[in-house]
Write a structure and sequence with these properties.
With about 80 residues, this protein is mostly helical. Helix content is about 85%, strand content about 0%.
């Protein structure tokens, strides 16, 4: 599995992540949270926005990222 494969299946993995079990979604959320937190901290350092605005941005990044990770893991484990 390389970057081209990930890029080709990104939309399908996101949709697939919305239909997996709750346990797989929780795993996807735990995997995606450090990356979303890094983006939020980085964005806060660049913009100096208020904390709640940065937190909301981090949360909005984290939700689709966790669904994508769950769908990607489901596809990778299925085949």
């Amino acid at each position: 599995m390389d970057f081209k494969d990930i890029r080709e299946h990104a939309g399908a993995d996101l949709r697939r992540g919305l239909t997996v079990s709750l346990e797989d979604r929780a795993i996807g959320a735990l995997v995606a949270m450090p990356f979303a937190a890094f983006i939020g901290i980085w964005w806060n350092a660049l913009t100096w926005w208020p904390n709640m605005l940065t937190f909301a941005l981090t949360f909005l990044i984290w939700l689709p990222m966790s669904a994508w990770v769950a769908g990607h893991l489901d596809r990778a484990n299925a085949g």
